[in-house]
Design brief:
Bacterial polysaccharide co-polymerase-like; 6 strands; 13% strand; elongated; disordered N terminus
Amino acid sequence: MYTQHEKIRTPWEEEVSIPELLGHLFRQLRLILLSGLFIGSVVFFINVFFLEPSYCSSTRVYIHPAGGISEERLTYSQVQTWTALTEDFCELAKSRSVLEEALMRTGQGAGQGKRYEDLYARTSVSSEEPSRLIVLSVTASSPSQARDLAGAVREVSSEHMREVTGMDMVIVIDEANLPDDPCSPRILYNSLLGILGGAFGAVFLLAAVYVCDDTVRTPEDFDRIPGLCCLGVIPMGKVKTRRRRK
């Protein structure tokens, strides 16, 4: 006899109906939305109250020989040389000697080993080929500290390039700026990712539970099980009884 909500584990295989699965997920839409909002709220709370904001300051320089070279005298080998020097500047700007000197000039030279590794991870130097324009960025915990470090790294790198090549070839295009807003954490972006992640996670779990659930719930489910048939249905519920009067 069939009892409603009774779990029977059988070796039969049931094909998953996509419309039924979508209908099941639609009925759980409130739970999916609440899961997304909950995870998004947790991410927002962590970003606001536990993560320290970081500020990024950038400065731009251009590699060009002192005095300049006219277009008529410019040769391909000279272009290749300045391009190579641009790459050398990018590598030199993140060298230990440059970063440690920049820390000393900004008054952050204590514990140089640890400070150097930390500043190295927070310093970015990039150039777009074939341009000789270099963007140097430094991330720090305060706007003024980020600006001072970016300017110090640029100055020390320029001095080292002058000592190596014997020419003043680093032209400052933009001074290090004082950032107004933090570059990380990206609170709105991370919160939206948390909402989407929570919603998709809830959809995945609900779909997995639905697919793996082989509970026999209706008489039609018995038709899919070989060798079994439904004899009757016992409803689940409380039966009201009348008290006899004495």
